[in-house]
Amino acid sequence: MTATVTKIHQNKPNDEPPQALPELSLSTQSVTLGYDQTIITDNLSIDIPEGKFSIIVGPNGCGKSTLLRALCRLLPPKSGQVLLNGQNVHTLPTREVAKILGLLPQSAIAPDGIKVVDLVARGRFPHQKWFQPWREQDQIAVDAAMKATGIMEFAQQHVDQLSGGQKQRVWVAMALAQETPLLLLDEPTTYLDIAHQIELMDLFQDLNRLQGHTMVAVLHDLNHACRYADNLIAMKSGKIVATGAPNDIITEALIQEVFGLPCLILKDPISGTPLVIPKGRG
Hints:
Layout: E1 26-35, E2 38-48, E3 53-57, H1 64-71, E4 79-84, E5 87-88, H2 94-100, E6 101-104, H3 116-121, H4 136-149, H5 164-177, E7 182-186, H6 194-209, E8 214-218, H7 222-228, E9 231-236, E10 239-244, H8 246-249, H9 252-259, E11 263-267, E12 274-278
Parallel strand pairs: 3-8, 3-9, 6-7, 7-8
Antiparallel strand pairs: 1-2, 1-4, 4-5, 9-10, 11-12
Helix pairs in contact: 4-5
């Protein structure tokens, strides 16, 4: 990525402040989630705080991605409800949901032979009508998303020619081009080296703090989660063990309970957030 990550947040030439995002709420009410006969979560209720960056952490198989799939209505609950602005998300029109909620999936597959710019442009689908020509505002959104993620140089390349990390940035750009007030991210730093991980997390934090987007991410890196989350959700075995600000809930006892990992908790000298140091055997 390049130093252009903040350009998506620049005000218009007349220096008008960014338009306020519409109010929204996202929650689950006593949802039971699973696949076929396998139950992953049972009777789970949670409220996603509006305007905050929430990050879900927990060991493999604990239900993090399953919960995220339910929040974006990819996985219907076996019982209970997922509510978007007080309405069952499964009863709302797809296009209306797509104007509010954007998703960066864990393992996205691009159509064969599609170019980067064309894939990013697909993020504009919810904002277009049948037979409506491509508008200037659509192009502005696509260009801003590609600049923000540092992929302008790949615009005319085919997606299948890119590296794993480059592809991930293209999918992020498509989600940004959708311009939704709510963005769900399933392991967004997968395939990225540490420098690009930090730039991408900084971008998400900017979208949250400067633009007011509500963000929900699943992450494996505990220290990234502690540094960037306003609201941390710790899961184990399909249940929420703790939720709150990292400084309020992250303790050595919690990490031991959730991950079975002996550790030390120090204060991150950069961010002031908890820094998890695994003890291991070394």
